[in-house]
Design a protein that fits this description.
Layout lengths: L1 H34 L3 H17 L4 H10 L3 H12 L4 H11 L2 H9 L8 H10 L2 H11 L6 H25 L14 H10 L6 H20 L4 H20 L1
Helix pairs in contact: 1-9, 2-4, 2-9, 3-9, 4-5, 6-8, 8-9, 11-12
Length: 247
């Protein structure tokens, strides 16, 4: 009897593991595929970054190394501009750090669905989180409707196209004009707005989005650099939090 129960238990465990594997694989590919529509908005920026890096006299290895190790579009474009102006290393590091501070807000809202993971795994996922992958996955990961495989698939999808577009920019060099002059930079904010709309269901959420957008636009018009990103993110978050507290 005990032997039969042991065999049955082993069979159940095997069947559960076989069930889990396809689910994890399916979530990974779901995240990867769901992110593909955003490639059209990301690729022009990867090409533009490579062109800017070449203009700043960075060689191919340095340009590619930044995409592989930094993986942050706005920060890389800013760094390329600072390299071109002869800024010192500390200024470049501080500027990119400020631009990427919004990552604290993004990863903090993803944390509830990832706390069960070991620290190194969470750090690896956090390294690749971007605005786009966050928008694609936050609705499911934060509520634990999907596991980390969904976020990993989305991260890998965007990481892949960013490296490909950087290589394309290096190969094309001065052959093509600045791709942002063609208006392709509008694809990203428009697609991100479409992704945002399903999450706006309550009055505080609508107000938070309006405040964030307004502050970002005003900051972009009045302030140098990329401070508008941080100002919009913090202002929108505070507005939403205050309204939720009153409610």
């Amino acid at each position: 009897m005990d032997e039969k129960m042991a065999v049955d238990g082993a069979a159940d465990n095997q069947s559960q593991s076989e069930t889990i594997r396809p689910t994890v694989r399916a979530e990974f590919w779901r995240g990867f595929i769901d992110t593909i529509p955003l490639w059209l908005g990301v690729a022009p920026f990867g090409i533009a970054y490579a062109l800017a890096a070449q203009a700043a006299r960075l060689d191919a290895a340095q340009t590619m190394g930044m995409s592989l190790l930094v993986f942050a579009g706005a920060s890389q474009l800013t760094a390329a501009g600072l390299f071109a102006s002869g800024a010192n290393g500390l200024s470049i590091i501080l500027a990119t750090l400020i631009i990427n501070l919004r990552g604290l807000l993004l990863t903090a809202s993803l944390a509830p669905g990832l706390r069960h993971l070991p620290t190194l795994q969470r750090a690896g996922l956090a390294f690749q989180v971007t605005d786009e992958t966050y928008a694609v996955t936050v609705g499911r990961v934060s509520k634990r409707l999907s596991g980390p495989a969904l976020l990993l698939g989305s991260n890998i999808s965007l990481y892949f196209i960013w490296q490909v577009s950087t290589i394309a920019g290096l190969l094309l060099g001065g052959v093509i004009p600045d791709p942002t002059s063609l208006g392709l930079e509008l694809v990203f904010p428009l697609s991100f707005s479409v992704l945002l709309m399903p999450y706006l269901r309550t009055r505080p959420q609508y107000i938070a989005a309006i405040v964030a957008g307004t502050l970002a636009l005003v900051g972009r018009l009045l302030l140098p650099g990329s401070w508008y990103i941080l100002i919009g993110a913090i202002g929108g978050s505070l507005a939403g939090a205050l309204l939720e507290e009153r409610k």
